[in-house]
Amino acid sequence: MSVRDRGAGPAVARPEDPALARGRAERRTLQVRCPADSRLVGTCLIDDPAEVVRRAQALREAQPQWEALGPDGRRRWFDLLRDWLCDHADELSALLQAETGKARRDAEIEVPVLLDHLRWIGGNAGDWLAPQRRRPHGATVVGKELHLLYRPHPLVGIISPWNFPLGLAFMDAIPALAAGCAVLIKPSEETPLTVAEVVRGWREDLGAPPILDRVVGDAGTGEALVDAVDFVQFTGSTKTGRLVARRAAEQLKPYGMELGGKDPMIVMRDADLARAAAGAAFGGLMNSGQTCVSVERIYVEDAVYDDFLHLLEQEVAAVRQGAGDVRQRFDLGAMATAAQLRHVEEQVRDAVSRGAVVRCGGTCLDGEGDFFAPTILSEVDHSMPLMQEETFGPVLPVMRVSGLEEAITLANDSHYGLSASVWTRDLERGRAIASRLDCGAVNVNDVLANLQAASLPHGGWKTSGIGARMGGAAGVQKYCRQQAVVVARLPLRREPHWYPTTPWKGALIGALLRALGGRGRRRLPACRGAAPARTRRGRSHEHDGVARRALRRT
Q1: Average pLDDT of each block of 10 consecutive residues along the chain (554 residues)?
Q2: Which residues are catalytic?
Q3: Half-sphere exposure of 31 toward its Cβ, with a 13 Å CA cutoff?
Q4: Which end of the chain, C or N, has fewer beta carbons within 10 A?
């Protein structure tokens, strides 16, 4: 499927090999329907493992020339991609909205996020990837130059999810491309169209180097991608992440993962309750709650619990939910998949059966489309899966706590550890609370902000992930192999420690290393006539040595 550029003119037709044409005709087709109204949005050919291998090989062949361009040469193509994205932002947002069912305002944020990453990473990659020179640290490397080089993994594979199909795929692809890697993306089979269109624009409209491609398919396609690449970056559920990690580890391939989350929000009695309630509504409901760092559970000090809950109900009541192309009419769209809708519905139903109280929402909306009403639940506790397992939907469970210590204990009572938020007017106290939370990022008096901070790492602890995406220099360098280069500046005919071995050379080298590494009088060689140290049993170390040698001879 190709959504053609309206302003680029007709594509040039090329004759196709008959055997290849027959192979394409035999491949399975994937239909993509809009979750908001079930209409057919587009179709894609499913790539089998053989097609994945073919595309991977083509990328490998093109990668050396891309690496040879250097950061400045690659930045030129980043700038052209920025222009292309700006020119096609409306089309891409419409396609995103159609294949995900999200509100238009949520669809429209993905292109600007990529523009920011292209500018930031493209403009700084030259400094981050520059060769580094290290100072010699000891006698054995005196007279040598020590260099650290960053060499890209030739081919990076990216497996991206359906909640932000374009943004999350290219938040990983951009730093990998900046590092000099070729990139093969497998978007979710639920939402493959927008990624395919950007890849098409890169290759056809821009005529950029053929080091970016995509494949479409299910688990079999993903397994083939892991087998075909040198580094895997995965974003998705913890369950699937374990499968991907196992397959990569069996082949000793490095990988990075952002997995599930159950992000807590702590509201202290001195918080600005109006801001906290507005932040909870946005942080928990944005993109219908289908955001990796969504607010998924809220702990409020008892003294302000009722006031906060009342303010939160007002905020959620003002949220507009629906579909359609009219901008700014709706705040929330549909759930991206019917399976995710059922999961949210089941979690809420289970919580209610265990004693939770529905303050608003709590049900699927009547009519066409996979919509779940914005929901607030009170009287929740940690016996409920709703408070333990990822929801990934527009649900805000609010729990009363006695004070800070209980809030921290409950916030950390999770096998997830992606992000959290803390709300207090005392910023010093907020930073102190943040340092006690077991997660990769903490926002103080804010929500989702860490995901927008490209200079900071974004990664989960515990079962929320391995490694981090973004993170300034580290976010680009992770797609590289570090290479150490040692250069002898003033080479002697032979180094002092080379053959032939002589007693005096060994003694001299040992004395020099001891002088550099030892402390105090231990830096000096032992005196030849000194009395041997005694052991606790009264025998000397010298006696022990004689005994050991005798035992070896026998």
Answers
A1: 32 44 67 95 96 98 98 98 98 96 94 96 97 85 91 98 97 98 98 98 98 96 98 97 98 97 98 98 98 97 98 97 74 95 98 98 92 98 98 98 98 98 98 98 96 91 94 95 93 84 85 85 66 47 44 42
A2: 258, 292
A3: 6
A4: C
